Amino acid sequence: LKPYVRTRRDHWTMTMATTEPLNQWETAALKTQSAHWRTQYDGLRGGNLKLDLSRGKPGVEQISLSDGLDGVLDGNFIAADGTDTRNYGGVRGIAEARGLGSELMGVPAENIIAAGNSSLSVMHLVLRTATDLGLWSDERTWSRKDKRKLLAPVPGYDRHFALSEHFGIELIPIPMTEHGPDMEAARAAVSDPSVKGIWCVPKYANPTGCTYDHDTVAALAQLPALAAADDFVVLWDNAYAVHDLGDEGDVLASVFDAANTAGTGDHVVQFASTSKITHAGAGVAFIAASTTVLNALDKHLSVFTIGPDKVNQLRHVKFLQGRLQDHMADHATIIRPKFDLVEEIFSRELGGLGIAQWTKPRGGYFVSLDVRPGLARKIIAMAKDVGLTLTPAGATFPYGNDPQDQNIRIAPTFGSMEEIHAAMDILTLCIKAASAEQILAGL
Ligand code: PMP
Questions:
Q1: Which residues of 10-165 form beta strands (DSSP E)?
Q2: How far apart are CA 293 and CA 274, in angstroms?
């Protein structure tokens, strides 16, 4: 088993013993079945299919849940403190938007900046500030030294990798476990002074769906104190903070409190956004950090902009006020059947064959699939050939390097139920055909 497969909790599914594992089949039977799968697969060619399970975008029905943003202000652009949101200014965002950030992130509003529409852009701001000015307005800039590294729990989020590489930062993979990043590996890695931080997606991680347990949160909060670097930062991307699929979501411990207890409050920076709450391309992003860090960020931010889109911030506050939970439940009602369908088809088509294992997340946007080592690239290419686009092989690992060539990220939110059904039939057929052929080739 890959180390991140959950064994103690029921939301991670393993192949079930309903069928004999494929590698134990009689050779003759396997040959016959393999030929049958290959024929089925060849029959898909020329079908002009155009299916896509590659990117974690909300579907149209989800986006439409927030169309009420349009017009919610009804001509009233004045924020609670009298700020005219149509005008310039207020680089940290309006107070009530910081309040929304506080509700999302569980951090006091005074520790929050409400920014523009993308949390990735504020992650860029934090890396830029850490590199050039330092996050503490002193001599501790990452650019003091040529070599800079960040720890990347794997499998992980490809855009974190791209962002790091953009800044010339080397990525060091750290395995995910069922509890979160492998903290022993992380502690060993931070003895290198060029390691400047760690990426975390602490709730419903992209792509494994893991929510870090309380001990892991506490251990991560202590990491800056153990690090050889004096400018180490925990980059806490809580993109799926309120994105539960069921009525009861996972509970994530407060890293803000844990860091304050550990005396590392200046070394944890948190991110969130409404991208997957309202309109993905027109939301509000948030940074949460200590006063010292926010002051340093202000220096870059205030050169970059005279202020964020405060009208949009006010619209979000008016639209979500007092109903965030209900709104997220509406999202869950739309996407839960899609995740259930993925689970159902994986179980039906692959259960017991011993050729794949997959996650059954309780929230977030992804299902993480592991196929037999050496087959991810091949299966993704086979799917592509018959019209199904999957996330490129290796995307969940830095530099596209999945050492086992076995992880595939599935994003079921965007497509319709019919499209997901068709896509899953193709994917599972590709997995079966490729696995049978690999087993036969090894006999
Ligand atoms: N962080 C994670 C972990 C994500 O999965 C995503 C979207 N796929 C983002 C950030 C992007 O967030 P935003 O739209 O706020 O830039």
A1: 12-13, 51-52, 112-114, 149-154
A2: 22
How many CB atoms sit inside 10 A of residue 74's CB? 7
Fill in the amino acid letter for 378. K
161 lines ligand 1 (CB under 6 A): no
20 backbone φψ class: left, alpha, beta (φ>0; ψ -120 to 50): beta
How far is 111 from 6, CA to CA, in rounded Å? 34
Return the closest-CA partner of residue 334 out of 218, 420, 439: 420
User: CA–CA separation, 241 vs 325, rounded Å?
Assistant: 11
Is there a contact between 44 and 59 (Cβ–Cβ < 8 Å)?
Answer: no
C-beta of 278 in contact with ligand 1 (< 6 A) = no
The Cβ of residue 295 has, within 10 Å, a number of other Cβ atoms equal to 13
In ligand 1, the atom with minimum distance to the C-alpha of 272 is 15
Q: How many CB atoms lie within 10 A of CB 179?
A: 19
Contacts of residue 238, defined as CB under 8 A and 6 or more positions apart, other chains included, come to: 104, 105, 201, 202, 203, 252, 270, 271, 272
The residue whose CA has the least distance to atom 7 of ligand 1 is 56
* pLDDT tens column, 152-161: 999 999 999 9
**Tokens coding 119:** 């949390």
For ligand 1, atom 4, the nearest C-alpha belongs to 239
Assess whether the C-beta atom of 273 lies below 6 angstroms from ligand 1: yes
Both tokens of 220, joined, read: 């991560």
Which residue has the least CA distance to atom 1 on ligand 1? 239
Q: What is the pTM of this model?
A: 0.95
Strand ranges (DSSP E) for 49-204?
A: 51-52, 112-114, 149-154, 170-177, 180-181, 195-200
pLDDT tens across 73-94, in order?
999 999 999 999 999 999 999 9
The type of residue at 202 is: P
Alpha-carbon span 201 to 396, nearest angstrom: 13
pLDDT at 47: 83
Using only the alpha carbons of the chain, give its radius of gyration.
23
Strands of 130-225 (E only): list them. 149-154, 170-177, 180-181, 195-200
Low-confidence ranges of the chain (pLDDT < 50): 1-18
Tell me what pLDDT residue 15 has.
Answer: 37
- Nearest partner of 159 among 98, 92, 235, judged by Cα: 235
Cβ neighbour number for residue 188 with a 10 Å cutoff: 11
